[in-house]
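Section 4.2 – Deliverable D4.2 (structural model, holo form)

The reporting period included a commitment to supply a predicted holo structure for the target in complex with zinc ion. Inputs used:
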Amino acid sequence: MYEQIKKIIQQKKNDIDDRTLTYFTNYFYVATIEKVIPENITLEELIDNVLYYASKIEFYNNSHRLAKKYGTDAKGFQEPKTKTIYIRQNLKESLKEIMIYHEIHHAAQTNRKNDRTGINQKGNLGRLILEAQTQYFAEIVYQRIHHVQFENKKIPSEELRMQKGGTILSSLHNYEMYDNLLSKLSILLNVSKTFFVTINYQYQKNEGLKQLKKLYKKAYKKYHLPWKFHRLLLILDHIYYTDLLAYLDNPEKQTILSGKETKKKYKIHPHKKLKCSLQEQMDNINRFDKDTFFALIKSKGNYKEFAKYIVDNTNREITKQHIESLTENLSTPQEK
Ligand SMILES: [Zn+2]
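Output (structure tokens):
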């Protein structure tokens, strides 16, 4: 199957260089064996999509125009104008390869009619899920190709441009905080994380977003969740946007990183303007964690698995003790 996929790509772009061909083939091979491509989309269509946006891979250093434009923290880009995937040269070899798959994945999930990527073709909401599943799948490709398995790590939140006092449980090497939220969403919705990969290929008519909403509505009723779908996406987008301000070069970067709140309000949604700070970002994460945990415990959801991913160190410790006391009550035989 690997050779077959390679041939299809070569036939479509006969001057493709060997390195690019290998990475493209790796990506499509894993997408096929992992069965993440929706039934109504063909492999050929996706290959056409990727080749439309990118047909070569280049590495750039800190003096490159892209580093000057976006800052030196960024790891990779896909530039449609030059049809090039640019990856920062001084990253670790494994991360470089992962970021190549990340950019190929973006291209595969981009709508050629409007250049918009992923589940939400009409607005911003959904960006965190879009990026999280992109990185998640890019690391799956790497793991399958190299026959390795990445284990969960406990990362102190302050190492991830976040407020202190939290721990991020994730096996990824980039976007770990988004991945942590994606893990919790998959527990809440009772789907595997590849579900989020599949729905992001279904950008036509916002089909993927509709599927997600339908599933969320089920969980909303089952667990009596406190926020409607739209509200949840808004919370996630605020978390995402704060991280973006702390990451790419922009006038607010230092404001955010120094722990202050932005003076400006950001229009992250047509009817909502919000200020951003690391504290608010953490408050949103904690709100999501707490509300979901209690909803799951009340309605007998998978609260035990969920609790492992709670970010705030104090809250995670409290829930752990709470779970232990519940288990003890159940297992201690009555004495008298
Ligand atoms: Zn990305």
